[in-house]
Amino acid sequence: EASSKPESVVLGENIPAPPMVYISGEEMTHYASQLFVEQWIKPYFDTSAWEVFDLSCKSRDETDDKVLHDAVAAGARIGAIFKEPTITPSALQVKEMGLSKAFGSPNGAMRRGWNGITISRDTIHIKGVELGYKNQVLFERHAVGGEYGAGWDQVGEGTLLTTYLPKDGSAPFVVDKRDLTDENNVVVVYHNPYDNVRELAHLFFQRCLDAKVTPYVVTKKTVFKWQEGFWATMKEVFDADYKKAFEMEGLLERCGGDLTHLISDAATMQLIRWTDGGFGMAAHNYDGDMLTDQIAQVHRSPGFITSNLVGKSEDGNLIKEFEASHGTVSDLWHDHLAGKETSLNPLGLVEAMIGAMQHAAALDVERNPEDVSKVVVQKKVMNFTLTLREAMHNTFRYGQGTRDMSGPSGFTTEDFISKVAWRLQR
Ligand code: NAD
User: Fold this and answer.
1) Which residue has the CA at smallest separation from atom 11 of ligand 1?
2) More confident position, 425 or 230
3) What is the distance in A from the centroid of ligand 1 to the CA of 13?
4) What is the predicted pLDDT for the residue at 8?
5) Is residue 182 predicted with pLDDT exceeding 50?
6) Hey, whose CA ends up nearest to atom 4 of ligand 1?
7) What is the CATH number of the domain that holds 316?
8) Labelling 259: which of 19, 241, 286, 364 has CA 20 to 30 A away?
């Protein structure tokens, strides 16, 4: 069997891992993350510069959510964040866990607190292993606005007015007036902040160009007329800065020679038909949430999708938060608690760890231009993370993958992690 020894990283070397924020969550993904940090990272790195925040429901409750504010502040300061999946408690979970209130999604607070531009979600591929899509699929999901930030209420009969008060003091006007004739209505107000769509466009088209895939923009603008602005900005940036480069790479041939808009319902169908991959999609927040879950299913498992939030700090540097695209995998956690075997696919989590460690190292070099030792550490982080990826992929290639991939003969959560640890030491 091939081994994957890190070139210039040795066991017990205690390389100072560059500062990053580590957000810990709960259930199965917390358990598995603890195992791989202990077995894969700590034998090579001194992680004392990591700032750790526990965003389990219990910890949020005990600190009256101060821990979330502290985590967001630390993320904005440091700029590189690894996040385990967390629980946004349902009404039932509030009761079961004895929480003082139903805490909101920490993800929403982070997207707002780090001026989130996009959540990039891409398929993970292992050479020689067939998954759902043959070539890469990239996704850019607008990180803010839409249904997630909605204000709403349940009301009876009457009239609903939505009034806009301009900041410059000019005359207010009514955006919408509607008469409610039912006795029972839910009314909802939300907005899409569009200032950062230009930045999203640049990130998306550049990523598609680097990966050599064809970009598409997805909205429901035929019916939801207010979404026209999203498409218009994407098209404007594309025509001005990217069209030529995509033409030269021959990447517009599959879409009729120009940037193509897809209605979201058509996109859901194409995601199932276009299993050759080789394309990218950019969409609004909620559409992006749904479409990326569909990509995860076509691509065999949510464990084979990355999820990176890209935002901006006050000084204009990119804040990057890396997480898996899936949740806390409660069903496997309950099996684990019941003493049953589990098989968690950690690839999405580990790609997040790799991304966060690499971004942390790059920022540390940028912030300390005089300090050559930071460059040495960055090289070691690159070596180590590439070796780690190879060790995981080899484990899958040799038929020792997790059960979502390898079927019932696949490894358990614990055996997969030990096998990769063993391979790292060879
Ligand atoms: P989930 O993504 O945890 O699981 C959905 C299904 O996919 C389950 O059957 C699970 O076993 C399977 N699955 C997911 N990832 C897997 C992996 N890596 N390996 C093997 N199988 C995998 O979603 P859920 O069950 O709907 O939610 C569980 C909890 O996660 C909820 O409390 C929810 O609030 C939370 N959640 C958190 C985030 C986040 O923090 N980003 C995102 C989604 C859900």
Assistant:
1) 329
2) 230
3) 35
4) 63
5) yes
6) 329
7) 3.40.718.10
8) 286
Q: Which residues line ligand 1 (CB under 6 A)?
A: 85-88, 107, 301-303, 323, 326-332, 344-345, 348, 404
The number of domains in the chain is 3
Encoding tokens for residue 342? Answer: 């589990």
Q: Which residues pair with 177 in a beta bridge?
A: 161
45 bridge partner residues: 15
Among positive and negative, which fits the CA dihedral 220, 221, 224, 227? Answer: positive
With the most atoms of ligand 1 within 8 angstroms of its CB, the residue from 86, 99, 326 to mutate is 326
Instruction: Check whether residue 101 and residue 13 sit in a common domain.
Output: yes
Counting atoms of ligand 1 from 1, which one is nearest the CA of 302?
15
Residues 27 and 56 in one domain: yes
pLDDT of 13? 85
Asked, for residue 223, whether it belongs to a domain, the answer is: yes
* Ramachandran sector of residue 386 (left: φ over 0; alpha: ψ -120 to 50; beta: rest): alpha
Contacts of residue 210, defined as CB under 8 A and 6 or more positions apart, other chains included, come to none
In a domain, 144, yes or no: no
* Claim to verify: residue 46 and residue 88 sit in the same structural domain: yes
Residue 150, number of CB atoms within 10 A of its CB? 12
Q: Which atom of ligand 1 is nearest to the CA of 331?
A: 11
The confidence score (pLDDT) of residue 406 equals 83
Mutational pocket test of ligand 1: of 57, 329, 353, the residue with most ligand atoms within 8 Å of the beta carbon: 329
- Cα–ligand 1 centroid distance for 33 (angstroms): 14
**Structural domain includes residue 93:** yes
Length of the chain: 426
Which has the minimum average pLDDT: 5-9, 154-158, 322-326?
5-9
Digit-coded pLDDT (tens) for 337-356: 999 999 999 999 999 999 99
Give the end of a domain, one of 299, 326, 346.
299
Check residue 105 and give its pLDDT. 85
Residue 7 is predicted with a pLDDT of 54
Looking at the fold, whether 292 and 169 belong to one and the same domain comes out as: no
Q: What average pLDDT does this structure show over 298-315?
A: 91
> For residues 201 and 233, is the Cβ–Cβ distance under 8 A?
yes
Q: Cα separation of 47 and 51, whole Å? A: 9
Q: Which atom of ligand 1 lies at the shortest distance from residue 329's CA?
A: 3
Same domain, 125 and 157: no
Task: State in Å: Cα 302 to ligand 1 middle.
Answer: 8
Verify that 307 and 295 share a domain, yes or no.
no
Q: Are residues 226 and 237 in the same domain?
A: yes
* 406 and 326 co-located in one domain: yes
**Out of 23-27, 200-204, 396-400, which region has the weakest mean confidence (pLDDT)?**
396-400
- The answer as to whether 249 is a domain residue is yes
**Domain containing 174: what range?**
152-189
- Whether the pLDDT of residue 358 is over 50: the answer is yes
- Ramachandran quadrant class, 257 (left: phi over 0; alpha: psi -120 to 50; beta: rest): left
